[in-house]
Records
---
Amino acid sequence: MSILVKPDSKILVQGITGSFGARHTQLSLEYGTQVVAGVTPGKGGQVFEHNGKRIPIFDTVADAVKQTGATVSAIFVPPPFAADAILESVDAGMDLAVAITEGIPVNDMVRVRRAMQGCATRLIGPNCPGIVTPGEGKDSHGGCRIGIAPGYIHKKGHIGVVSRSGTLTYEAVWQLTSRGIGQSTCVGIGGDPVNGTSHLDVIKLFNADPETHGIIMIGEIGGSAEEEAAEWIQQHCKKPVAGFIAGATAPPGRRMGHAGAIVSGGKGTAEAKIAAFRAAGIGVAATPSEMADTLLKML
Amino acid sequence: MNIHEYQAKQLLKQHGVAVPTGEPCKTVAEATTAAQKIFGGGGTLAVIKAQIHAGGRGKGTFKDGFKGGVKLAKSADEVTALAKTMLGNVLVTKQTGPEGRQVNTLLVAGAETIKKEFYLAVLLDRANSRPLIMASTEGGVDIEEVAEKTPEKIIKEHIDPAVGIQPYNARNVAAALGLKGELFGQACKLITAVYRTWWECDASMVEINPLCIVEGADGKESLMAVDAKIGLDDNALYRHADILAMRDLNEESPLEIEASKFNLNYIKLDGSIACLVNGAGLAMATMDIVQYYGGSPANFLDVGGGASKEQVTAAFKIILSDPHVKAIFVNIFGGIMDCNVIATGIVAAVKETGLKLPLIVRLEGNNVAAGRTTLAQSGVAIINGDSMADAAQKAVKAASH
């Protein structure tokens, strides 16, 4: 098992004809992911071709869902149109929408979050690397890769990874794979201040997944999502959790690359998050080099 | 993006918030003219405020020893004299760092008779992804201190983004501030206008500190935003050309401006180990690991996921123009990117910039063997790091020589 997506999940790609969306759709197809449809308004009826695979393109998400039975949307739509694309996937009743787009205005996401209240669709991201559930094949081929993560670094197994940062997710995954330890599912929740799914949401899913035996949680400065997750973990989580918080050396008041990575008004510091991790019994990696080892010592 | 106080007040005024009458002045002559208007119109006191993107201006000191970035003047001549001293002078406050900021603009305004000071701000509450109005009867002071010592004095009102601010939201805040009668009605209008400024401008923060009850010449009391600060959401600037035009490059570090031209995310710090990294999270973590092993990072630098040779070369040039840098730590996890392409870019950049400083490279990921071979055979002196920890320790050692 895994969380959120399985190797046979049917994926559609919103923004499949853009250069970024097209490139990563190709990589997902090569990884063996079931990409069944693309959506680009105005290009309905065309076909996205790669290595002999022919993916139909539709004008609307609703059409694509009706024709192909896709349940998950990967969103590669440029920032000014991304909020609309997310809401379109919600309206079409997707189980999961994964917004890769970086640079969506915060107020757009505030509106999207409000509009999604009570809806069945789960949103991952935006500004995230996506989700990978590794497959059984060579270099984890045959898995479900949604987004922009390198597929080959993964290995099928029992560790769940959740992170606000793309490259730190890859670091953690690679550390695990290099030590022969596989992953159940790896989830990048994104670096924006308003996102669809929190650390805690993903931790709850991992906790309930019988195939996940341990969890790596990677956080960074800004907000209080890590603290909330830590509090829940202390009370409810049955599985060992190791973590790392990036940004201990970041100057206050500056946004460190990610829109959400900012210490403001003395809130959201790495110290506070690390203290919350420690208090909750989460193994804290002293450096990003030790994320996998910190967890492995706890298993 | 941040804007100046006078620009923040312009935006607030456009949305119907009362602000003191005043003008931004870039020359002594403009300051004199603005002062003559104030005193000619019956005013008896003017306030001259240095416009820089940093707090603590009133308690700041100019580099020539002149004290105070916010001054009062009783005549136009006094304003002229103050403008001569302040314009072009460098103001150091607790927020500017020791290098301070050059004052290129002064806000010359009529000084109000202040009866009471409040605090009012609109921001995003990240915990529930909703807009939040924050207010307090304790205005004109450090609000973080108020929140820390007397949290009960902080008023919080969340706004439902589906419908925007409702009259009752504004009434709740006005009542909690203890306002009555005519001032209560005024406050409701003002709070609504401040919220709309925040929402319509895509601000990350609108802060009015102090919001004041002022007494007019006729003895009537009214509410006025006496100081104001607005931060904008960079991601939304594409739909606000008027606000983007308010950007003041003098307030930004020249190196950070240069970096932004190459889509590099660079933030200068004061350490000696320059970091060049792909990905924001890894870039932060690289600074952290440098410090963990006893070094100090010279910068945050994220070259992004698809770093080109041009970008890497530009990044090296930017790093090298910081005279405090003693070693360079390149930390790359090539996920999709071919490590050999990155290695080729590094070698080209080193050759083009004639790098003399120790260069420590940790390369991992896609096609890493070929990348390492390229580095080893390049003839460029590169210290190879086997892991991030190993590379960080080597960088710290190299910088300490």
---
Amino acid sequence: MPRFLSAKTDTRLITLPWETPLAEWPEEMLVALPRGISRHVVRFVRVGKEVFAVKEVLEHLARHEYRLLRDLTRLDTPSVEAVGVVTDRFTPDGTVLDPILITRHLQFSLPYRSLFSRGVRQDTVNRLVDAMVVLLARLHLIGFLWGDVSLSNTLFRRDAGAFAAYLVDAETGELHDQLTNGQREHDLTIARTNLFGEFCDLEAGGLLDEALDPLVLVETIESRYRELWGELTGVEEFDGSEMHRIESRVRRLNALGFDVAELDITTDFAGSTIRIQPKVVDAGHHSRRLIRLTGLDTEENQARRLLNDLDYYRARTDQQNADESIVAHQWLTNRFEPVVNSVPAEMRAKLEPAELYHEVLEHRWFLSERAGNEVPVDQAARSYMDTVLSQLPDEKLNLSGMEAMGPLANPFDPSQGFVDDEVDKPYDPWETESDDDTPEEPATPYLDIAALRRAKG
Amino acid sequence: MATVQFTDATRVYPGADHPSVDKLNLDIGDGEFMVLVGPSGCGKSTSLRMLAGLEEVNAGSIHIGDRDVTDLPPKDRDIAMVFQNYALYPHMTVGDNMGFALKMAGVSKAERQQRVEEAAKLLGLDDFLNRKPKALSGGQRQRVAMGRAIVRSPQVFLMDEPLSNLDAKLRVSTRTQIAALQTRLGVTTVYVTHDQVEAMTMGDRVAVMKDGVLMQVDSPLALYDNPKNLFVAGFIGSPAMNLIEGVVSADGISVGDYVVPVPRETLAHAANEKNLVLGIRPENFDLGSGNEGIGIDVDVVEELGADAFIYGTLAGTPDIDKLTAQQIVGRISSRTPPHRGTTVRLNIDPEHVHVFSKATGNRLA
């Protein structure tokens, strides 16, 4: 009988066909979501209304990744949620099957290939790059060495015109108390190489805008990361007469979306030179404030946008001196919820509520510009749904994106490549030879010292 | 190509009581395949990462060739971590999949092509170069990953448990391929594994580590035949060497009612120790006759063609203690191995008796 390792097992998962190799699971259970290439068998499985990613992998790797993903969730770092590990799998005839790691599919997420498939604008690429840099810096801040930084191992969610990046694959990850500079440099080197490869691949497939140069892109990633890391952790020294620089450092970090939990401030004996260094910074400055005020759990830029609208609402209703949380409640019931609730049911899978609200605000700005006067929000919302939202694809479960590269050999497994028209297999001396002498290794775990003596002579 | 030299290299994690790597001294020859092996937490991976530049060196130094790399960032060390990146890009040819990092490094097109062709030849992938990686097998994907490191022609290859995420079949074939390639390329290689069988079959020399300390570095056969201490004796070899405590007597060391003959000069090294530890590899036992040999109560017999492994406990161990008593393993070449439940005598080949101090754990010369 299979065994479940899980914090809280979803009982519907227990009845899945664990005794069947994942590659042979019935198609009616599977969902063909676009995703990166994996060296393991990976499938998306629909269970009720939810979708889970299941990956067949060696036991120590499955447990390692499960624990790491749980740690990342606990540390409030954007990553997919680990649901459980299934071990002790056997086919009815007793063949042992590899364990399975189950993660929850991230709703409204977009793999990079689907973002690029329709041709991509330079500013979109820049925003993806920024999201990637923020994710890498956040992971490094908590001491996480990724080891396989790549676009394939990342999912993106819309974030008020920008993107928020999520870690998908933690197989090579390690959680340390603190990373050394060498470890961060190592991750950065891997990021450069992998992203360069991924951009070149998009270029070779004709999917990258001709104005974009893979080398410039990866150099941008590196320099933006260094800038952000410097701002987040760098030492700043100034004269005692410039005390305002402490405040401006904190504000700059807030503007980047980070809170300063500990700031190390030292002065020399005379007090003439001040040295400051942020020791603990937490991402989510705006999203934490929004969740505290309204209970809405959003991405960072969405929170920033919604908080701006809340401030605007406060000024419009002349409540600058009222308690912030009371005004926030009013804003939620009078502004936010009516817009979100006015979306017809059939269009609700197109955008997340916070993203939708952001889009309506954008739309309203355009309408107001054109009309020369302020258009009310409810009117802007109706116009947005009629003219824009109805035309958008569903993104809750994004099924588009892979077709641009031709038909897949297996729609559920991009790792198997595309439908192959080259039937003849090239000559491979290594595989042809090894077919002949199969008995390479005895099945016992013993060290064959006699063979070793012969070999090492 | 280059030598690698660790000199008193030490890594202490912040807040830790003990160094993770304690004054490591290790000289790796030009073109040598060095395997670092030991149980988890022994410091093998940390040592490799110190060489790669991922871990700080708190004391001591590391040289690659004549260059002191102790404080250099990873990318300036001219090393390559092999098998770091398996992803194959579907729109690029196999050749471009191998050589794209050179393009990033600004290597000219002609040179890129030449290096990729050389690597492909070595890897048996010549005929694949202009193909898309559509339907490469698992083994071919491994080779493309190796190719990515080879085309960079670094001074040193580093491999950190590269086989741990492969299934058993691919593990064995990749192991053979790595070893063969390394011999052909002659690039200095440092390889980390927890698997002593892997270490023994792959390495020119093997460095055995425990608790951050280098226990012994030697050729695989020297480690097997002359382990310097109890740890190496027990760690190298499977099934493991039998380590049996006995009492020193005039002509040897007595175990139960039998005195295992040990040369007097060996015993003379024992200072004043009354008890010593005998090390006997399973294959150095033979079935004895009469009263010769250590008495063993046989619990399990496992036949392997012409040989048989017998597992048992020292004769006379009360039944109630048998589960917790030390297990003795012997590999017997006999057509008629003993049955379980019987008591046998096991003779020891005097040439192959290892003797260790119980106090220090060190081998008595």
---
Amino acid sequence: MSIPIFSSRPPEQRKTRAVGIDLGTTNSLVAVVAEDGQPKILLGDDGQALVPSVIGFEVDGQLDVVGAEADDHLAERPDRTIYSVKRMMGRSADEVVSELGMLPYRVHRDDQSAAVRIQVGDRRYTPPELSAFVLRELKHRAEKQLGQVVDRAVITVPAYFNDAQRQATKDAGRLAGLEVLRIVNEPTAAALAYGLDRRPEGRIAVYDLGGGTFDVSILHMHAGLTEVLATSGDTHLGGDDIDQLMVASVADQIESAGLQVRGHLDRVQRLRKAMIQLKIALSSQESAAVKVELGGPLPLELAWDRADFEALIAPLVERTLGPCRQALRDAGLQPTDLDEVILVGGSTRIPLVRRKVQELFGRVPQSGIDPDQVVALGAAVQADIMTTGRRDMLLLDVTPLSLGIETVGGVVTKLIQRNSPIPASATDEFTTSVDNQTGVVLHVLQGERELVKDCRSLARFVIPVAPLPAGLPRVGVTFLIDANGILHVTGRDVRTGQEKTIEVKPSYGLCDEEVVRMLTEAYDHAEDDWAARQFIEARTEAEQVVAATEHTLAGPAGTRIDDEERDEIQSRIGSLRAAIGTRQIDPVREALSRLNDVTLHLAELALASTLNDVVHDAKLAGRIENDAPEAAERLKHGHHRPGVMGH
Amino acid sequence: MAYSDKVLDHYNQPRNVGSLSKDDPNVGTGVVGAPECGDVMKLQIKVNAQGVIEDARFKTFGCGSAIASSSLATEWVKGKTVAEAATLRNTDIVQELNLPPIKIHCSVLAEDAIRAALADYKAKQDAATKSEV
Amino acid sequence: MAILNDSAVEPGTPPAESPPPFVVDSDGKVDLDRWSGPGEPPPDAFTVLGLPRRLLLDPKHLDLRFRSLIRDLHPDRFHVSGPDAVRKAERHSSLANDAYRALRDFERRVRLLLELEGHAVDEKFRPSPALLGQVLEINEALDALQEALADGAPAAAAAARGEIAATGRELGDARQALSDRLYDAARRWDAAQAPDAAADLASLARRDLRAALGEASYLDNLLARVQAALLPTQAPTPTQS
């Protein structure tokens, strides 16, 4: 039996949606699995799939605009238009310094943590805060498209990202008001998208050359199970580097002709944009030319042959082959063992890249799904797997880097080897070397090299122990790498069995207090978000009430009200629709409540008519003669006032 | 785990690296290896007429602790008599360098290398004495 | 590393004479309270996957067991059930992952099984003087190569590479012979597990396994360095950035 009361969906069903986000160096995308089970990219108002990962600020350092519009201002506002944030995520300022040469904005080193801060006006931002601006833009885009609140996301990262970089990405998600369901590796996400699309079986290599990073993964796909066998890469190799090479080469020529480029931020940016145009053109043409206005007497025309371009970038492309061989070795496979090679990332459109990949793997690489979109699509699939409980697909990933601890001589003793399937764990026992020591210091490192100085310091922490003679305390430490590739540590006093979770402060990351502080600082935005979310909820309810009212008006109950009542209801439906158009929550609530006031009678009629049907049916069946009126009474005056919204 | 300056010192600037002539009858050579980590250690001593070790050299391929252990071992045996050198124990090295349990085998290796070198020297001396007789 | 060959296996066929995996209860359901965490010693890899303690496992069976288990255990399956279930699933799936990693490589499996039986690899094993001589030689050649590369002396580098390659070939042959010895000893050990097998067969096989393993790991370390030195294009080892 169905009762046409004006209710919305059952409350236990979540009204919010989970999306997949490809947070890229150059561009970002958001996707969702639609009702038909297929992932699709959510487009912006401009009909574009890509959101440039560019953030524009006001002169005083307040956020202005994110995406394409910010990208358009790159040349005019080079010092307050931030791009390539991803390359700074989870890294120290010193590491980033090597890239400073061509960055037009100001990068600072935080004295306390050695972490990167980007200064705009008088404000300083951390990389996660900046990424959060991009994520928030994607969240808004998705909410607008879906008409639903989006509060959970799967976010992708390069497979070769270390713990600190993953943690920073997770922090960015939190700062953007998203529950990060999972951090997924980009090549693996791509494989998931292919997995859903074509259900390939066997061994697959994914070659992912993005804007700023290079990854290669070897996977085994079997009956919906996507198992990563090995992964390798370079977190500092991508399209950005190609652009920089081109700019540097052209800048040399221009400067030798007497026009200074370096040091003129706007000229560098104009040149960079022109070079990107040229690069894209050279993927489909043998030669191309662009005009660029650098403030000289005439616009400069730059003409390149593909051969020049290829000669310039060949060393970069060559650098991707080492990690490919390494991944194959780690997977214990020969190129001939592979069933397919998949290309991911915009830079794989470059013909030289395709040729080199084909040479190395001995087969023509595939790019059936748009290489710019495939990662976001796969992330949406993973979000779907995690929120719907679907069981036909599962992703088994590996940790890209070995995890170890520092031992005497500055040597790293490995506890978890690279390419171990995750979650993975290791337990080790430690003791003291001096009498009455009150703690044992553990230095956790990630990387493949033997010496501490060559590995990435993840964390240093002290495990407290009761003061005892040297060698007597026994501390068991368990390292767990979760499915996101992020480390958790628990320590246990072996003698007492007492367990404690050790807080791991990522070396260049944000600690919890910092995230909380930033969340508080971002309270204004949070309020915006909250308002938007409230509005979306109210609108959804309003739309459902309108639909239900109209449905009832057209049904048997509708014939039992007079024209005046009918006109009043319809006029108030009109007002409610107009209120929805204002995108303001208060008018919607107001109009909704006014509509509810005049539909009570209609709702009662509808209920009565339904109950009559029920009673009639029951009588026919010779049952529940006495229960029915009571039930009708209960429904009429019961807790469930039809048509009234919850707020 | 704080390192004593000694470890870092030996690790960064190992003493007595090099080789002595293997065929010199006054030189004892010990080559040992640790299967656990693939380390290999060659330790040589040169003994003078008074039975005092006047020079010691080593060549170690392995981790920092192994290098530090063998470097320390050569420093210690220099100036000692053959009999004194034979009393050197790996635990002395562990104590001096403050080695963690996971690296104790490095000190064992150094002890073994000294013993092997002493044994080689004795064997050469015995052979020489025999041929003299 | 052993190469898996599982393309012919259909999901759902359990290995013939295996017990159920550790985390599966008597009703065939996954029990996430089976292991309480690091405070309690974790079950061994064979127990986790529900496989008999044998050295020569059918890789197809191993893959099958692991995959069906991880399909049920992976934390992604439990996100809808809340953070507590996810944590338990993380713990239990790390058990399964670690067990799979330990068993799918033949030599790691031998090492593990010996440890379980209370016979760790012989710590006292000392390489023969002849082998140690080769090891020193190769290490010296590796050093010479590095020096030559640093000084930009191609002729000296080529000479050093030649020396490394020659010794490397000898070591490679020795390693192959060791693998054969290991497989042979493993077969004998498995056979000795039969109830009617003579007791000394097992201990004999075990002694051979321990000796061969000790030598094998020694040679592997060496061969890895040889390989790295001889790579055609000096492929950089993946570094942290």
---
Amino acid sequence: MQIIPFIIFTFIINCLLDNLYNAIWISIKLFIVCNITIIYSETTSISGIAETIKILCTPLKIFKVSPDEIKIMICISLSMISILKRELYEVKEACIAKNINFNVKNMKIILAKFFLSLITRINQLEDSLIAKGYSNE
Amino acid sequence: MIRVENVSFKYKNSENKILDNLNFSVMDGEIIAIVGQNGSGKSTIGKLIAGIIKLKEGNIVIDDLNIRKNKKQKIIQDKVGIVFQNPENQIIFNNIYDEISFSLKGLEKTELEDRIQESLEQVGMLKYKNEDLYSLSLGQKQRIMIAEVLAKRPKYIIFDEPTTMIDSKGKEKIYKIIEKLKKEGYTIICITNLADEILIADRILILKNGKIVEEIKKEDLIEKAYVFRKFDIKEPTLLEILNSLKEKGIILDMKKFTINELVSKLKGKLKNEECN
């Protein structure tokens, strides 16, 4: 249901910039791709998704790109989504407690706080990776 | 043994040194607690010993291996494990098996499985082996992080405020793990600002403005309890009770500094008085 406004928006833009036939065709393709992605992400664990991407990236070894590192990046990024969602919710509650409305006007304050905690988290994750023996040397 | 000799450290954008000519040593098999207020440099020492931050001034020698002269970080990381405050910032993989095996590259599959099994048993988390990490509570996640360190079989383990974000029940479980690890021969450095965590240590080092201002052995805790107040560190509750009893003329010879020991000593004292 959440993807429908996005598909409608795409349909309208393509109608304006192109023709109706292409707009319908692109919207149908987008609808199918979004649904397949949703089903895949709901039925596959983060490790599974990362492992799949790692296997698909194996040919990149020719260009000296490590698929293991790509797997680590995907795992961390996907895991961070739930953590950052919760963090954003905490920022919102803190703003409400301080009588700051959680809206576009106050976005500068909200984003500053959010990115500060994100950078702290990244620094701590870096320390943890080094402690676990990960090195990009 | 770990020897910290004349270590000073300053962060890049900082004017003042966070550690100033620090000297101390950690004997094999002991637990030392490093306590101090926020910003005193406790976590920095932990990161320097674990080889996470590069040491530029002074020497840290771990079993005759000088960190500053050693270019291979892996050798240090095989000897020293570190557990940080927030378990969520240490997690890379959602799968427990992948997470623990990340630090164990180069091992054969059978040995890898044995080590993972053993380390999960040591922290009482074997039944959660097939669970997703993110479905666990913070205390359980922290125990998995401890298991990950134990799987590497380090000789030294640094706990950097490991229970700050955890509830009291979770804290108790972690303290029990630390005590169990001590009995198994691990050398532990516990960095903390929680008063009750001091009591599990054999020696307590008080850090202020980057220097060690006081060193207290466990057997001298009651006599030197005033030192904690002097440096604005909250005394453990048990110590406050013992000191109050001492002021009333009741002197108890404590060894483990646990509530059970206090109760049994008091019972013994009352029985003696009844007999007299």
